[in-house]
Amino acid sequence: RRSKTKPAAMGTHTSEAEKEMREWCVALPKVELHAHLNGSVRNSTLLELAKELGDKGVIVFEDVKGVIMKNDRSLPECVRLFDLFHTLTTDHDTVTRIAKEVVGDFAAENVVYLEIRTTPKNNEAKGITKRSYMNAVVKGLKSVEDVDVVINDEKLSCTPMSVLGGDTKRKKIYVRLLLSIDRHETTSAALDTVNLAMEMKDQGVIGIDLSGNPVVGEWETYLPALEHAKELGIPTTIHCGEVPNRKEIQAMLDFCPQRLGHVCCLDDEEWKKLKSSVIPVEICLTSNVMTGGTPSLELHHFADLYNTKHPLSICTDDSGLFSTSLSNEYYLAASTFGLSKTELFRLAQGAVEFVFADDEVKKSLRAVFERAAAERL
Ligand code: 6MZ
User: Fold this and answer.
1) Whose CA is closest to atom 18 on ligand 1?
2) pLDDT digits (tens, 9 = 90+) for 363-377
3) CB under 6 Å to ligand 1: residues?
4) CB contact set of 351 (below 8 Å; sequence gap of 6+)
5) Rounded to the nearest whole angstrom, what is the distance from the C-alpha of residue 39 to the centroid of ligand 1?
6) Which end of the chain is more exposed for a tag (fewer CB within 10 A), N or C?
7) 313: how many CB neighbours lie within 10 A of its CB?
8) Is the confidence at residue 6, as pLDDT, over 70?
9) Whose CA is closest to atom 1 on ligand 1?
10) What is the ipTM of this complex?
11) Torsion angle, CA of 295/299/302/306, rounded to 10 degrees?
12) Distance CA 34, CA 164 (A)
């Protein structure tokens, strides 16, 4: 295994300067485009859920506690961990609870627009269908109490954007949902997910993601569903190149999704192709270091993409799993690559152009950043 520098230990600022910069990164309005619901659950919630299942004898709490609290995981370990997470979270009430908490956590650090992605799951034994799973997620978004959550355009019309991201006591956040196709799924299951996305358009569902264990499955299995999404006008984002896979990476670039996630293991030719495609990339610094997609933060491909002005957006991937936050990811970009506040601000602002939401939402978000610029810079 390659040696790693833990992102949390990085930083060139003195502690006072670091503190000030960290606070600035929290205050900065931010757009989150790559966050998996079950990867963003608080450790405290996972532990509480594990304790309940431990008391019922379903799992051995002490074993699970050790796994949840372990840091520094390889990609295969992460994938296995998700099976455990799903055991803990997959019932309707818990799905509602975690959706509510995750949105609240992002809003608390001044995320003004959040695209949260999750894999709709059938679980016959628990009476769960893909549709009922998603209804539980939407219920969670609607039950956030201390933050105004804007999940569709109707609500938008009665939500004055003048207060979004501003200094009012009550925070507001746009939330949109992406339905993930898991790489374990069959073509028919993947098509079901795309059709469900279409059915739930008026409930904040806005796009399709392809994710899951990158060494499992074949591109040809998901292609019909991704093409169906394209025909229906549903935007797609694809996990690409988490592990080297020439044929698949080429096919993904040829498919031309609206966005790509990760792009860690590209060779020179794929790199050229990506850059000429100008497809925006969702950058997940901590995640890529933790899972070994990149050898260290300093060697992360962010620097190259940033220097060549490739469209990108800083994201968390799995803030719970990797003990990070979007503010921390911005801080790491600054401390590792020497970005100034102005450059960080432009990065955050630039992400508005890659959201899947419509032009009205974009317009409002642009105004949020303009106001923030007038106030802070
Ligand atoms: C690939 C990932 C991932 O959908 O149950 N997921 N897929 N690479 C990653 N990088 C570390 N992180 C998360 O959220 C958890 C699911 O998201 C995908 C995996 O399929 C995982 O099971 P949901 O809400």
Assistant:
1) 212
2) 999 999 999 999 865
3) 36-39, 78, 82, 118-119, 180, 182, 211-212, 239, 242, 287, 291, 317-318
4) 30, 31, 33, 313, 314
5) 7
6) N
7) 22
8) no
9) 212
10) 0.99
11) -170
12) 21
